[in-house]
Amino acid sequence: MASNAPYSGTAGLRSRTISIGEQTIPYFFGEDCIAEIARAIANYGPDKLVIVTDDRLAGLYARDIERLARGIPSITLTHPAGESMKTPAVLSDHLETALRAGITRRSIVVSFGGGVPGNLAGLMANLLFRGVRLVHVPTTTIAAMDSVLSLKQAINSGVGKNHIGTFYAPTAVYTDVRLFDTLPERELRSGLCEMAKNCLAIRPGALNQLRAVIASDNLAAPNNLLWLLEASIAAKSAVTRNDTFERRAGLVLEYGHTVGHAIEICDYRARGAAGIPHGAAIAVGMLVAAHISHARGWLSDDEVSTHYEIVTGLGVEPALPASVHMDEVLAVVADDNKKGYLDARPDAVPFVLLRALGRPELSGGLPLVHVSMTEIREALEVIAQPSAPASVVGV
Ligand SMILES: NC(=O)c1ccc[n+]([C@@H]2O[C@H](COP(=O)([O-])OP(=O)(O)OC[C@H]3O[C@@H](n4cnc5c(N)ncnc54)[C@H](O)[C@@H]3O)[C@@H](O)[C@H]2O)c1
Question: What is the whole-number distance in angstroms between the Cα of residue 391 and the centre of ligand 1?
């Protein structure tokens, strides 16, 4: 009999609950715990596992992927690593392969990887037989601390990022922080920047602990990672508990994203995969947002300094990448996807701004306000001075 019992076979793992609207999703995590994860998956009683990963992970973790399946018939679907694989063509290939391999409604789709395999697996689980069970085993900090804490599942279209998607809840999430050992430093820090965003915009009470983690000079220490996971789950649940679709309180998660996402896109155009990582771009976007709030008289000098302290503590250069021009960033910002949440205004975009740390300014009940392109330009001009210390950049 297929079981959905989330807690069987999880002895030895820490557990928390992710609350997203009506959904409560168990999240288990620990160190060196693939055997426990395999036991928990087996306890769901699947007839087959469809493991979605990428080529890099399939090489690095072939043995762990085999252990995950533990005698359950399984197929492993893989693709070259990276964002360029989040396409309808790869999704369609994976669906066909899974169906030809004879999966049924009792099968489970397991993502083993970062946000890219995670999003592909999420869409597959939603589409196969109009919904089969989904289990995430995230292997990047972005996936473990951000993407699996959301029901959003999306791939890219030829027109733009995450344009084809849906909302779908996993049955459970299992993270083994040992899998982060092989994560390149830039990927590790990228996830921690999203975590820093949660502290600045949602849970400033966790900032002192984050400072201690940064000061320990070993972000990848298992105890640090386990704390960061717990703190991410608590922060995200606080705003998604009553907002399944992240269209109300959950919009605060977009802090730093309006400008950050634009910087990421512009640098990707300039330098391809060598461009600024997602989390670092969001961190620079948070500095821009902090300067705008400061100019409005909302954030204090100290609160802006805290932004700089955390962002630079995570190793992010508090400046626009040299390959990115401010005008280009502004052009992308003008097309931001939060348009439509507030009434349209010429020369302004909806933006998440903080009144104080952990307190977004609201309009119409949403954590969004209109910000003029002039205000954004002025803040970018401050940021555009590479390596300018906080004391001379208007703080
Ligand atoms: N709400 C959401 O659904 C949400 C939120 C945040 C990000 N995302 C999506 O997630 C994606 C970015 O996530 P990502 O950075 O995890 O991308 P990713 O899956 O492409 O992983 C980044 C790189 O790290 C490598 N990698 C993964 N785990 C590794 C490990 N343990 N050791 C060594 N290398 C490893 C991968 O092979 C890849 O090259 C984007 O597509 C973004 O849209 C979605």
Answer: 35
Question: Can you tell me the distance from the alpha carbon of 342 to that of 338, in angstroms, rounded to the nearest whole number?
Answer: 8
* Assigned fold of 198-392: Dehydroquinate synthase-like, alpha domain (1.20.1090)
- 65 Cβ closer than 6 Å to some ligand 1 atom: no
The CATH number corresponding to 14-183 among 1.20.58.340, 3.40.50.1970, 3.30.200.20, 3.40.1260.10 equals 3.40.50.1970
Please tell me the pTM assigned to this model. 0.90
Total residue length of the chain: 395
Contact 54 CB / ligand 1 (< 6 Å): yes
Q: State the distance from the centre of ligand 1 to the C-alpha of 52, rounded, in angstroms.
A: 13
Q: Which two tokens stand for residue 290?
A: 């902090």
Amino acid identity, residue 7?
Y
Question: Does 392 or 365 have the greater pLDDT score?
Answer: 365
The domain spans of the chain are 14-183, 198-392
Rounded to the nearest angstrom, the distance between the alpha carbon of 342 and the centre of ligand 1 is: 31
Most ligand 1 atoms within 8 A of CB, residue of 18, 173, 187 to mutate: 187
Please list the active-site residues.
Answer: 152, 254
Secondary structure tally for the chain: helices H, strands E: 14, 13
Residue nearest to atom 6 of ligand 1 (CA): 147
List, for residues 122-144, the tens digit of each pLDDT value.
999 999 999 999 999 999 999 99
Q: CA-CA distance, 319 to 302, in Å (whole number)?
A: 19
Query: 65: part of which helix (H) or strand (E)?
Result: helix 62-69
Q: What is the pLDDT of residues 17-29, one digit of tens each?
A: 998 988 899 999 9
